[in-house]
């Protein structure tokens, strides 16, 4: 691994980051630590919100192996609409609350670990480990699967 990179493992439980490299953290601590680590491995001036971006990258990739395809597809639409509502000042709207319910339901399934490589202001997913998804009848992965190879995701 080049000197200007850093590898970190983020563990999620029900969609919430709970550990970095095996150390228990809160979501806020995860963002702060990832921000610090990513900031050490990037070009000066390109450091804004790197921790949050790394965490989002890890969460989205874990969703690809823990959510059923159609649910994941619809969730992307919900994510966009939720963001629009918040951006437009509709925090208290009934629709935003309804979307929160859907997001909470999907989050329950997002449990596992994501290995990230932090480099050049980016976070690249290099491996996934997940628990059994409720819609999935294949055995849960025990080892690290490559994030873009479905056949390796379920290997132990």
Automatic annotation (TrEMBL):
Q: InterPro entries from the xrefs? A: Arginosuc_syn_C (IPR048268), Arginosuc_synth (IPR001518), AS_cat/multimer_dom_body (IPR024074)
* Region described as Disordered: 128-156
Q: What class of enzyme is it?
A: ligase
Q: Recorded E.C. number(s)?
A: 6.3.4.5
Q: Does the keyword Signal apply?
A: no
The chain positions of domain Arginosuccinate synthase C-terminal read 6-133
Q: Per UniProt, which keywords does this protein have?
A: Amino-acid biosynthesis, Arginine biosynthesis, ATP-binding, Ligase, Nucleotide-binding
Q: Amino-acid biosynthesis as a keyword? A: yes
Which pathway is recorded for this entry? Amino-acid biosynthesis; L-arginine biosynthesis; L-arginine from L-ornithine and carbamoyl phosphate: step 2/3
Biased composition range(s): Basic and acidic residues? 128-139, 146-156
Cited PANTHER family: ARGININOSUCCINATE SYNTHASE
What protein name is recorded for this chain? Answer: argininosuccinate synthase
Top-down, what is the taxonomic lineage of the species of origin? Bacteria, Bacillati, Actinomycetota, Actinomycetes, Pseudonocardiales
